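Figure caption, in words: inputs first, then the predicted bound structure.
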Amino acid sequence: MTNLSHLRRDFPILRREVEGHPVIFLDSAASAQKPIPVLDAMDRFYRSQYANVHRGAYRLSQEATELYEDARRRVARFINAGSPDEIIFTKGTTTALNGLSSSWGYDHLEAGDRIVLSMMEHHANVVPWQLVAKRTGAELVYVPLTTGYDIDLDALRSTIDSRVKIVSLTGMSNVLGTIPPMQQISDIVRAQSEAVLIVDGAQLVPHVEVDVQTLGADFLAFSAHKMLGPTGIGVLWGKPELLEEMEPWEGGGEMISTVDLYESTWAPVPQKFEAGTPPIAEAIGLAAAVHYLEEIGMNAIRSHDLDLTEYALHRLGEVPDLVQYGPTDIKSRGGVVSFTLGDVHPHDIATILDSRGISVRAGHHCAKPLMADLGVTATARASFHVYNGRDDVDALIEGLHEARSLFGLSEG
Ligand SMILES: Cc1ncc(COP(=O)(O)O)c(C=O)c1O
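Bound structure (pyridoxal-5'-phosphate present):
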């Protein structure tokens, strides 16, 4: 990958200090930091290009529309979508999954039908399905994990049948780092049901090259802010015939073709799903983030994540009393490392690390069903992106040794 110290200069936040220490940011799975090209693109738009889109006959609005639609084209290319029309801008992964559940889910589910999820889903891929299950009488079924922290494919095989209408799974766990074998999963789902397969790509898309032509999914959701882009925007990709068929989940301006007092008709896809003024500056920021990731290269980012994760697992293995949750096979996981340290509460670990300028996440990571399955209430979690290096892992390990001694854990 591009020289790390050179690349770190692109992230102004890494120049600031916390508690007298330089920022060591190990919480990119929650939200990633932003490089200068993203900040500049949004700043430039607000300063000199700003107007609403799709509305004005005047130059500024036309330019803003061009930038917004260009962002759609760039995102489409990034995930190899067949057309930019397959890209719907949403507020984020959560909004995309809620849109799917309340529109596709509500229209296609009835009592007796099943929605299949895994035990390692983020709440964003659990609660929307609970809501639609309540409204329709459909049933939620959870596929268990193997002892290696992956989706149990035998259990999946015995779960999928003609009652299953929706399968919605994470593309990469935000707690375990697991990257389930989606094509294999897709083959099982297709062979045994007519269910749609939805992939929650919130963690996957920022780190692994995703090609929707080969992923095996019908829908894919992801958020810009985890891929070095801004908050407030995400993407729902869908197969064109499914997007055509799906009803909008929000009404308002921008998404209509005609409106009279009692009836309206919809604009073509993707506008049909983009009611109201869209996140224009955010789309421009997302496009800049995609460009930035492409310049580094998704394969280089994947190798960097693998190297760092392997190093982190090795170094964490040296810390007594530390339990790591996630696959040991490096190839089937990403750069997210969850752990507990003896009976030290993960929040205490995070506080001690914070006093050294190190940001890690502690808690249930919006995955309470998984926490219950693991038999813990919380873990600490370090997660990486392009600006992290082995030096950050070394700092983490030093901090963990300090936590051990502060909490009186004995050596060996
Ligand atoms: C796996 C996964 N899915 C969904 C989400 C929700 O993303 P957002 O909050 O951007 O909507 C997250 C965020 O942490 C996540 O990690």
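The longest strand covers residues 164-170.
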